[in-house]
Amino acid sequence: MSEGSTAEGSTTAPNPLRDPRDRRLPRVAGPCGxxxxxxxxxxxxxxxxxxxxxxxxRGLLPPGFALVGFARRTxxxxxxxxxxxxAVKEHSRTPFREEVWANLAYGIRFVPGDFSDDxxxxxxxxxxxxxxxxxxxxxxxxxxxxVPPKFFPDVIRQLKHHGLAEAPDGSxxxxxxxxxxxxxxxxxxxxxxxxxxxxxxxxxxxIDHYLGKETVQNILAMRFSNELFEPIWNANYVDxxxxxxxxDVGIGGRAGYYDGIGAARDVIQNHLLQLLxxxxxxxxxxxxxxxxxxxKEKVLSAVRLPADLGDASARxxxxxxxxxxxxxVGYLDEEGISPDSTTETYAALQLDxxxxxxxxxPWFLRTGKRLGRRVTEVAVVFKRAPHLPFEQTATAExxxxxLVIRVQPDEGLALRFGSKVPGTAMEVRDVTMDFAYxxxxxxxxxxxxxxxILDVLIGEAPLFPRHEEVELAWQILDPVEEFWAGQGQxxxxxxxxxxxxxxxxxxxxxxxxxxxx
Amino acid sequence: xxxxxTDTTAGAIGAALVQARHSAGVPAVGMVMTLVIVAEERDHxxxxxxxxxxxxxxxxxxxxxxxxxxxxxxxxxxxxxxLGDSGxxxxxxxxxxxDLAAHAESVLTPLLLPDAPVLAWWPGHAxxxxxxxxxxALAQRRVTDSAASDxxxxxxxxxxxxxxxxxxxxxxxxxxxxxxxxxxxxxxxTGPILGGSVSCEPASPSAELLAVWLEIKLGVVIERIDTNxxxxxxxxxxxxxxxxxxxxxxGRVAHLLRPGQPERQVSLIRREVAETIAEEMRRLDPDExxxxxxGRVTGTAEPVPNPFGTQDVGSQTTGVSDTE
Lengths: 517, 324
Prior knowledge:
The complex is a heterodimer. In chain A, the strands form three sheets. In chain A, strands 7, 8, 9, 12, 13, 14, 15, 16, 17 and 18 form a ten-stranded mixed β-sheet that branches. In chain A, strands 3-2-1-4-5-6 form a six-stranded parallel β-sheet, with helices on both faces. Chain A is built from 14 helices and 18 strands. Chain A starts with about 30 loop residues before the first strand and ends in a 9-residue tail after the last helix. In chain A, about 35% of the residues lie in helices and about 20% in strands. Chain B is α/β, with parallel strands linked by helices. Chain B has two domains: about 140 residues, no CATH class; about 140 residues, no CATH class. In chain B, about 35% of the residues lie in helices and about 25% in strands. Chain B is built from ten helices and 14 strands. In chain B, the strands form two sheets. An eight-stranded mixed β-sheet of chain B has the order 1-4-5-3-2-6-7-8, sandwiched between helices. Chain B has a six-stranded mixed β-sheet with strand order 10-9-11-12-13-14, with helices on one face. At the A-B interface, helix 3 and strand 17 of A face helix 2, helix 6, helix 7, strand 13 and strand 14 of B.
């Protein structure tokens, strides 16, 4: 799956201890450090710092790894160390080991400051130079922008201005940005321009934490390592595809981010369209990131919106209700939300793909907050058998065959098919065959962030979207957002249900129904 | 739920497993392999616990065969733990009394999951040639633990004589961490390696395998130096610029020192058995690199540059020369 990775290995003789047959040896990052902007945020505390600890605990970080925090706090190194310590203790996946922590702690630094503060970036530069000298990070540093997107341009400009973006000879500088990558095509292009001016595209890592590399690889493995599925993976056999990401939570503390963005921009633009691309794309010539990307871009460029968006889309906003036995407030009553907000918390959309493989197969995408339960899945629903040689009553309970790729909570694969009900009467009913990947074991079922951070540090070309894909996705979504902008208030739905009635109407117009995931 | 079946048959055990799955309403089997453990009474508990932890990563049916040879009538006693009680797989502990002890494969054969690969593990005493053992012949991967032997080095030599592709030894699994760190160290431009040494507690089969691996891959003589442990305490590789040393005096934290660079530290923990057996379960095709290394332990391939180092040979290596 790798793309001849280690950046530094190219000019020197091959490592005699590396042997392609020796598959026990994991990929380990070479000497390096990471700078996190926005270390006081939730993401940094709950995900990034624990993931760094977990990597360290699994022996995948280089000796002498350095972690630099940058934020607007008057902290000393020790204060920051305490923050990381607490975050790791509370959120790490692997057991807390004092000696692992002690090692990590040696390399922890903190730089207080503002993104507009030149002195702070000068201090950051000194800190990095000091780490190169004392910790042996050899000039290799990754910058993780765990800050709201509106600060990206500032930070990136500062990195350039202070010479932090340029790697000394034989070393590297990389930058990691989190979704959302803009809020429409124009802003995405602007962001890409700003980042692209300073970092070349191979050094930019865009991450979508919903879509871990594990999922991408599972889908690729399922589709392309089996002979079983490929022959039926087309319009001859597939009736339609449903891609769902349902959350049971509300917006929580994210009012400031979420209001005005909404479900479609938050989830469909990146996550669901990525799942669509992986499910619909043709077979890549290899699993190298570049080849996979070509196929994803191809299929995304063939996605077409239906002519009548009113018929083929639905949007909703959760109202008060009962969610899993707990009464919850509606979106408009959430703290920080204006009572006349038109932001949607549920979005559903029908798309068509203009290729020979998928002509005539509708793809239904839906996402929402405060839905029935938390689930992300891709359901490929097959056509009915053309002829059923049974009495009509025998197959009354037979539905359509379906292959369900479950992304979360427990990743796996389920197959629904008809089976005879034991007994004297001939009666066929749907059954489910289910495969779940093993339960998470402490050592080797890494969090998405662990894999991502390791990919960044190793320099493995990411399976995550490049800016072309991001822009293609906005091209698909922008007209829908424009259409919705003229539609006024989204349709309310009670929290804890599966969305607004119009979403069901949208399916009913095509004589189909949503699965209950 | 745990069910005890005394004086039973493989058929009855298989029926009980199917029955349990039906009554739990679990329609399909998600287990990906069968793990067979052949252990003596004193070893089986720890091995079973480790395998249950490992089965969280690789859902497996775990079959524990405890031979109880002796003069009693042939009898099979089984203890079945069902799906969900002890982990994500099914577990059957079987005691095979009398002459049955020599025919464990007859009980195991009908209990192996269809098509799924089999890993056989001997946590203690193991047969001379694993692949020729009736239980070993059922398995794709055969795992031993030479460190559990009273004379680990002699045991390693036995493994070498009886080696067939598909065999591995946990002593080899235990050095993965060291090997990873060494390989990562040489990912950086280092220049040719001129020599080196492995320092370890006496009679460490892992250290011997590590040293042989370095000798094969680097084509230099690796000295063995006895220390008080724990385990492997240091590896030094000599380059034209000076020594590259990874030392781990406390069994926990490794210190990497290379010429002209500051000292770096990284944790390098001695792993639990569960983690090593999980590593074995990850890949079931033959470990060719292990095959190459174990082949050199007795010098059955080309002669090792200088098999027992250039100085002060440790007691365990002397012992080996005697065994041969």
